Amino acid sequence: MNRLLRTLSILVLTLVAAPAFAAGSLTVSDAWIRPPAVAGRPAALYFTVTNSGKTADELQSIATPAAKTAQLHQTLHENGVMSMKKVETVEIPADSVTNFAPMGLHVMLFTPDASLVPGAKIPVTLTFKTTGPLSIEAEVKAGKPAADSHKH
Length: 152
Ligand SMILES: [Cu+2]
Prior knowledge:
The protein is mainly β. 11% of the residues lie in helices and 52% in strands.
């Protein structure tokens, strides 16, 4: 029973720590930022977009006061070599879950400022073609340096 309670309270804490943000039929959850391994290098932003609607949408841009520019990126694996390319928009299909995660789609935050310290909650605005702007908070998580902190 204690074990169950502890599991439940961890679950609740996790839910509290990672709120979801919704607009229209879109929900953005599990947003987090990996701080740069070296100050001044880009940080990476990850999140999950759930579209519960019957129509597709498109993620067009990302902005945060904590970085000069933010770019949508796709990590590519070709001939055993990992690289990344900038993508202009990301299709969010109807009735789908799109993960922005290490080694895949992600957002690169260039020239991040000093507010990106572990534990900080950073405001980020995602702009979708149909749904419009959706404001979220992403928590900065410390951890091992980005495995995909490739050169840009
Ligand atoms: Cu990147």
